[in-house]
Amino acid sequence: MPSVISKYMENIPPAQKQLFSKAILGSALAYWGYRLAAQNLRKKSPLSQHHKKLLYNGDTAKESFDYDNNCVDNMNNNIVPVNKVRLKNKHEKKSKKNSPEFNKEFILQVIKLIRLMIPSVYSYEVGLLICHTLALITRTFMSIYVATMEGRMVRYIVQKDVNNFAFMLVKWLVVAIPATILNSTIRYLENKLALAFR
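That's the ATP-binding cassette sub-family D member 2-like sequence above. Prediction below.
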């Protein structure tokens, strides 16, 4: 759609293009302001026209409706006692209390888990962690090296230097072999660590 509009805009003189774009922007802003104002007015009004129709049967109003102890359910267009709404809020608060929190109990549980997963400093798990960490550090440096090589390759392409580009391409292919082995080693060590921690 924007490409169609831009094709029509090519034939319009520059002064009218500016006026046309201002008109589109102004109408979009006016529509946005109308939507915001309508939402605010709906929030401020106690009952919309649809809910007023629910409250009135013909000419006589429902006298049993108490505005202090009832509210309108917007989803189902029903009148719901406030007590039920308060009960829902209480249940929501209880469910929030059951959600996990970062507190002293959580930290103690994590410490217990770490003691189970890593029984001592000289254990098999610590060796795996050290190997995994070293592999990750090596991959970081290798990624930086490969990125600089690719930058040089692009520079040689722009300069149309075929010899240096071919040399960098061979060098990049040679570096790709240990990089692939390193990535596979990292995945292997992650799996070994998961098994060891279980």
